[in-house]
Every structure is written in C-alpha cells, then in structure tokens.
C-alpha cells in the first residue's frame, strides 16, 4: 500500500469535484476547494475520521468494498478506479467483478434526478445505486448480499420479490428476466458471475430451468409498467433506459404523465421516502 500516493490521489480527486457534480447542494459561503472531506465521507458511508486519516497518510488499508465506495463517490473512471485499488495494495478488479463499477456518465445523470425514481442496474439485474425515490419504491438495495443482489436470482428463489409486480405480469416478467440473463451469459461466458447465477438457478428453480432452455435473448425494459407499492398500491409508470456503450449497465428512469394517478402517487411516495430517510438518520 502506497499511503502517500493514495492520500494525494484522493485529495486531488476530491478537490476536482463540486457538490453539484455529485448531486449535492452547493450551499452559501463555501470556502472549500472542491468537495469537503465530510461530504466524501457522507457519500461513501464511512466516518469523517476514517476518510481524514486516509488523506493524512496515516489510515489503515481500505477494504475492497471501501475502495469501491470511494470510486463511486469520487466519480472515478474505470482506469482511475483500477489505479485506486492498486495504490491501496489490492489487485484491480476485473471489469465483471463482484464489485461493479458504476459508469460515471450514468451517475452524472442520476445525480440530477431527485423527483422521480431512478436507479442503475448491472446486466445481472443488480441495483448498483438508487436515488431516494427508487429506494422508497423498491427498497434499499444495500441490504442484499451474495447472489440475492441480483433481481433475477430473487425472482426465482424468493416469492416476496414478485410482489412488486401485479400477478398478471409475472409470466411475462419471468421470461424477460431470463432473456436478459441469457444475453449477459453470452457476453460474459460460462465461467463468469453470469454463469454462476445460471448454475445456481438451474439447481434451485425448475421454472428457471424450463425458461432457460427456450434460449430467448433480449436486453430491454418495458416502456410502460405497473409497480405495486405496499402502501400506495399499483402505480402505473413509464420506463426509460439509458445504456452504457457495452450494455453492461443501464440507468432506469421511472416517470408518470402530469396529473395522472401515477403522478399523484409519486408525489406521495416522495413524502414517504423523505420521512423514512429522516427516521433512519435519527436512528444512526
């Protein structure tokens, strides 16, 4: 671990960003050049003291999970992320590792979306990052670990995962989940995490095994969908997807036409989400 290089790199990248670059408010009477240390700590979920020690060349070796959070908070490119890992004494993760790197271009768009649900998904159906509205609608993705991070895996192994869609849409959605995984499997290979998912689901879900044998391949999201919220009930939403060039990640934005029932429910969802985040902050 090169503490000097790591500290200098973190400081330079922090100073190169403004709050607006990461979806934060600028605030009045701002003297700090770039982001403040406490703002980086807030974005990564680490303590201010921990991050400060890293910049002061006296911190412990960060874990791979912590480095992935720093790369996301500082909006690093894939090459910069690899440099961060190596400087901290870790091998650079491959581009299909268990710690997916969120494309900075998608993050820049997500940062500007606060009044409607938006999230970034990997090609394995993992929610890599979600705004507060998406978390209020779909739950907190940080609570999921292992294979259960994948929507595809949970769809075929956890009945509760299907409650977000009306029952009449389950068959169509199951086929779409498998077709998307088939596309990822073709791109990543049998020895990849996509292959691991396929093997696990073939062993655990006869329904998945039957659909997998159809060899349906598709990478798309429905333009219009109905999602079921436990408190607000069905919400009809339009879905727009923005893909990275290699289609390994997608930014999903869920909206509703003004003054429709779905639009009014999103307004209520914003209030519910804000209340939950305030309650969680008080508990911390």
From TrEMBL:
<dbReference type="InterPro" id="IPR041413">
    <property type="entry name" value="MLTR_LBD"/>
</dbReference>
<dbReference type="InterPro" id="IPR001387">
    <property type="entry name" value="Cro/C1-type_HTH"/>
</dbReference>
<feature type="domain" description="HTH cro/C1-type">
    <location>
        <begin position="28"/>
        <end position="81"/>
    </location>
</feature>
<dbReference type="Pfam" id="PF17765">
    <property type="entry name" value="MLTR_LBD"/>
</dbReference>
<dbReference type="GO" id="GO:0003677">
    <property type="term" value="F:DNA binding"/>
</dbReference>
<protein>
    <submittedName>
        <fullName>Helix-turn-helix protein</fullName>
    </submittedName>
</protein>
<dbReference type="InterPro" id="IPR010982">
    <property type="entry name" value="Lambda_DNA-bd_dom_sf"/>
</dbReference>
<dbReference type="Pfam" id="PF13560">
    <property type="entry name" value="HTH_31"/>
</dbReference>
């Amino acid at each position: 671990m090169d503490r000097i290089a790591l500290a200098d790199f973190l400081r330079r990248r922090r100073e190169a960003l403004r709050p607006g670059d990461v979806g934060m408010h600028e605030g009045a009477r701002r003297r700090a050049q770039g982001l403040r240390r406490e703002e980086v700590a807030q974005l990564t979920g680490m303590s201010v003291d921990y991050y400060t020690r890293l910049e002061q060349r006296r911190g412990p070796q960060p874990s791979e999970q912590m480095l992935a959070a720093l790369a996301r908070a500082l909006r690093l490119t894939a090459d910069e992320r690899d440099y961060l890992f190596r400087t901290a004494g870790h091998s650079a993760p491959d581009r299909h590792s268990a710690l997916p790197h969120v494309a900075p271009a998608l993050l820049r768009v997500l940062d500007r979306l606060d009044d409607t649900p938006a999230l970034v998904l990997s090609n394995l159906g993992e929610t890599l990052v979600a705004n507060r509205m998406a978390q209020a609608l779909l739950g907190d993705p940080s609570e999921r670990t292992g294979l259960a991070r994948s929507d595809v895996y949970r769809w075929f192994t956890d009945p509760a995962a299907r409650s977000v869609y009306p029952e009449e849409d389950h068959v169509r959605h199951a086929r779409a989940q498998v077709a998307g995984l088939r596309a990822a499997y073709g791109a990543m290979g049998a020895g990849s995490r996509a292959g691991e998912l396929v093997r696990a689901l073939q062993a655990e879900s006869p329904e998945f095994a039957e659909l997998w044998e159809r060899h349906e391949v598709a990478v798309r999201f429905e333009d219009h969908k109905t999602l079921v919220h436990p408190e607000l009930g069905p919400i009809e939403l339009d879905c727009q997807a923005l893909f990275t060039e290699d289609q390994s990640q997608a930014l999903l934005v869920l909206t509703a036409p003004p003054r429709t029932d779905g639009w009014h429910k999103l307004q209520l969802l914003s209030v519910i989400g804000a209340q939950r985040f305030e309650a969680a902050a008080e508990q911390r």
